[in-house]
Design goal:
Layout: E1 7-9, E2 21-25, E3 28-32, E4 37-42, H1 48-63, E5 67-70, H2 76-86, E6 90-95, E7 109-112, H3 119-126, E8 129-133, H4 137-148, E9 153-156, E10 166-168, H5 171-181
Parallel strand pairs: 4-5, 4-8, 5-6, 6-7, 8-9, 9-10
Antiparallel strand pairs: 1-3, 2-3
Helix pairs in contact: 1-2, 1-5, 3-4
C-alpha cells in the first residue's frame, strides 16, 4: 500500500521539501508529495449514462489531486480522461497499440505499448487503486489482476460479481473509497 499522500496549498509548503507534482486547480495551486494513481477501467463503447458516471469519476480523481490512469481509448476511458481534464487534472493512457493514433484527445500523456489486451496488466500494476465503471470481460480481467496484486478495486454500476470488489453508489463515493483505502 502507498504511504499517506498529503495535498496542501502551495503557500503552506517549505521550499526545501522534495515534491513530485504541482497541480493548478481553478481554486488554487496544490502540491502533492506522493500523488495517488487511480485507474478508471470500463468498456470502450457504452451508454451515455455510463459515460456520465465515468466523466464524474475523472473529475473527482482530479479534484482530489490523483493521477488518472486508463486504457487510453474511447468510452469509459475517454469520459474519465475528459472529466480529469475539465478539472485541470493529469491523465495517462496506457494504449494497446504500437502508436498514439487511437489515443483519446483528453489524455495528458499517452503511452503506446503494442501489447493489446495484455496492457491491462500494466494498468493494474501501475495503479494504486482501480475503479471499474460498468464494463465486461476486459474490465473484469483488470479488476481481477488488481485484486490479485492486493490493490483496492471499487465497482461503480457493475453488473458482475467478483469477490473482493467494493461497491460504490456514486462517483464521489467510488473515488473516496479508493483514496481512503490508500490513506489519501
Amino acid at each position: 500500500m502507498r504511504a499517506h499522500t498529503r495535498v496542501r496549498p502551495y503557500n503552506s509548503v517549505p521550499f526545501d521539501c522534495n515534491l513530485v507534482l504541482i497541480i493548478s486547480f481553478p481554486k488554487g495551486v496544490y502540491l502533492l508529495d506522493s500523488p495517488l494513481y487511480v485507474a478508471v477501467i470500463g468498456a470502450g463503447e457504452t451508454s451515455p449514462d455510463i459515460l456520465a458516471l465515468a466523466r464524474e469519476v475523472g473529475r473527482e480523481v482530479a479534484r482530489r489531486g490523483g493521477v488518472l490512469l486508463c486504457g487510453g481509448l474511447g468510452g469509459v476511458m475517454a469520459a474519465a480522461a475528459q472529466g480529469a481534464k475539465e478539472e485541470g487534472g493529469v491523465s495517462i493512457g496506457i494504449l494497446p497499440d504500437p502508436d498514439r493514433s487511437r489515443a483519446n484527445p483528453y489524455l495528458t500523456y499517452s503511452l503506446p505499448t503494442n501489447l493489446g489486451h495484455a496492457r491491462n496488466v500494466l494498468i493494474a500494476h501501475a495503479a494504486d487503486a482501480l475503479i471499474a465503471v460498468d464494463g465486461g470481460h476486459g474490465t473484469i480481467s483488470e479488476a481481477a489482476i488488481g485484486l490479485k496484486l492486493g490493490k483496492p478495486v471499487i465497482g461503480l454500476h457493475v453488473a458482475w460479481d467478483l469477490p473482493g470488489v467494493r461497491r460504490a453508489a456514486t462517483p464521489a463515493e467510488a473515488v473516496a473509497a479508493a483514496m481512503e483505502t490508500l490513506g489519501g
